[in-house]
User: What shape does this take?
Amino acid sequence: MSCDFIHQALPAVQRLSPYQPGKPEAELRRELGLAHIVKLASNENPLGCSPQATAAMQAALTDVARYPDGNGYALKQALASRFALAPECITLGNGSNDVLELLGRAYLGPGRHAVFSEHAFAVYPLVVQAVGAEARVAPALAADSAMPYGHDLAAFRQRIDHDTRLVFIANPNNPTGTWLGAAELDHFLTTVPPNTLVVIDEAYYEYAEAPDYASVAPWLSRWPNLVVVRTFSKAYGLAGLRVGYALSHPEVADILNRVRQPFNVNSLALCAAEAALDDSVFLSASREVNRQGAVQLQAACERLGLRVLPSAANFLCIDLARPGAPIFEHLLQRGVIVRPIAGYGLPNALRVTIGTSAENQHFITALTEVLATA
Ligand SMILES: *Cc1c(COP(=O)(O)O)cnc(C)c1O
Assistant: This one.
């Protein structure tokens, strides 16, 4: 009996391609038997996580037979007091990807559409297409603009109409690292229909230090259609635990709460995130390592004659001016995992997470060799 379970799926789901994660260290070790591997592929924190978070998880291990607090009371309280918002404005997620998906499930579907940029985070098209909604892609800024390949809000605006339920803006954006200034975003919000939710994905905001950059979380009272999405995966170093959150109008949070899984954030993640939020020493150290690493990598790229896109995040998008895939492969042979981003429409670029000074040096040495020989 023949079966065809691909074609039994929803047409929109059949057309999806799965998310391509960074290559895991253990996989490269299996394949090549290399002793020393440097992974700079998934924008993880090279310092690990806060020791307070580790201690909180250890204490919580005794309780894993119990379901987690399905409402995440303690973490929501901690976030609410940190950002001066009511807990009713907060939605917790199994990573911020979960929150993005909840937004899609709650607000999109056939006949509705969402707008996001070319070269934006790969999860947006997945979230939109999985529910049969239309993705309208705004062309990015030109390669020779001040924010090469960055978000073009005028192009966004042209694609928004009364059926646009969601707009996804990553600020700073992954994989380019480019960002939008606060004044630009503020002006954009004045032009968006009040019923269109504008989702600002601030996965890297803790790293963003450009003078014109600002988190839009303080604007929630001014713009009821604003949704701010954040994560503990990057600066807080908890990627493996999966915890993120949205800050929004309480009605949006109410809706997301109806579609989420009852226990979508696990108990270790809840208490680690709460402890991590409290550790400003770890966060400052993470920022400092990132600042220094950015300088180190930028200087090396300059020596190699490579253009680096402006970045406000914990990674750099390096323009190789030739196909990135073979360079990626050669770097793997030398135990360095970075991210080729042809799938994001940038075939001549590599995205490199800023690591510790030693990790960055390992990458620089490998890249220098590869470019000299490849
Ligand atoms: C890494 C990243 C996230 C975080 O995803 P999690 O599910 O929270 O790990 C979200 N948005 C962007 C743009 C990212 O790069």
Observations:
- Residues 280-303 form the longest helix (24 residues).
